Amino acid sequence: MKAWQIASLGKPWDELNIVDVPSPDPDPGMVTIRVEATDLNFADILQSEGKYQIKHEPPFTPGMNTTGVVIKAGADQPFAEGDRLVGPTIAPYGGYAEEAVLLAERSHGVPDALSAIDAMGVHVTYGTTWFAYHHRGNLKPGETVLVLAAAGGVGSAAVKMARAHGCWVAAAAGGEKKTAVCRDLGADLVIDYNADDLYERVMDATDKRGVDVVYDPVGGKYFDVARRLLAFEGRLLVVGFASGDIPSAPANHALVKNYSIVGVHMGSYREKDPALVQRCYEDLHAALVDKRIEPFVSEVIGFEELKSGLLKLFNRETVGRVVFDPTR
């Protein structure tokens, strides 16, 4: 089968090569799938560089999560050939290939009515946001939400899911292209980091009250602004640190305003509460089939476009979700 493979750790657009490798035979507890779609994640870039918390020795194929059809079923697991699955891959057989190996116990069935692109488009971003809003953040209809980096993968999911939940949403992003995306996503208020004062725009729009929930996948300098924008008993959802800077907050400010700083690391639940992860994806897949939500997939790229797609992701030139389809 054909696969992209990292021979030496480094920037994937420099170190990835297309190779022919044997079709993988799954060990017990695993399945081999014919890949239909794999999302592009910043974590795949870090892993290719050897900078991610889970490290692999080269050679390996990146692509942490993928979806497709089971073509070989290992022992001691519940799936059979022909089943449609989405889930995490097992090194060295990642998702940027024609075939990949999935860990069965952390994979989820995909309804026949759901396309592979849509299943992949929600897998990480909407899954993370489901945990942020509905498990950790206790989001209620009618509340006010500020989403940072709102044109990106998790940000766009956060805007759409908050709107679907009946919330008022302020979306912040940088530049005219990305703010236009936020308007298309249905945000009630759109703020351009590059031209607007984030604090003033949100406070003016909320009559100086601030917002009930901040969804922050950015960290860095925006974290300080975000915590000051929280209303009394607000929740600041810490989803990630796309800026590269890990911030801190003065405890006395949280005390005086009675707000909560809430960590959201969805991956932890795969080990600590797998039944909750299963419920998350059952809810999301049902909502997709019923058209209550839809993923924002901005681009589907083919085999030859993978390196340039990862470089665009690294340079923050993408919006929404970019998905790899090996058949293109």
Question: How does the SSE layout of this entry go?
Answer:
Elements: E1 2-6, H1 12-15, E2 16-20, E3 30-39, H2 42-49, E4 65-73, E5 84-88, E6 99-103, E7 108-109, H3 116-123, H4 125-136, E8 144-147, H5 153-164, E9 168-173, H6 176-185, E10 189-192, H7 198-205, E11 211-216, H8 221-228, E12 230-238, H9 251-257, E13 260-263, H10 269-272, H11 274-289, E14 297-301, H12 306-314, E15 321-324
Parallel strand pairs: 8-9, 8-11, 9-10, 11-12, 12-13, 14-15
Antiparallel strand pairs: 1-2, 3-4, 3-6, 3-15, 4-5, 5-7
Topology as a string of helices (H) and strands (E) = EHEEHEEEEHHEHEHEHEHEHEHHEHE
The CATH class assignment of the largest domain is: Alpha Beta
Number of domains: 2
Write down the overall mean pLDDT: 94
CATH architecture of the largest domain: 3-Layer(aba) Sandwich
Using the CA coordinates, give the radius of gyration.
20 Å
Query: What do we call the CATH homologous superfamily of the largest domain?
Result: NAD(P)-binding Rossmann-like Domain
Task: Note the gap between the termini.
Answer: 15 Å
CATH topology of the largest domain: Rossmann fold
Extended strand count:
15
Shape: globular
The amount of beta strand, in percent, is 25-35%
Number of helices: 12
Structural class: alpha/beta
| Parts with pLDDT < 50 across at least 5 consecutive residues | none
Largest sheet: 7 strands, mixed
- State the share of residues found in helices, binned by percent: 25-40%
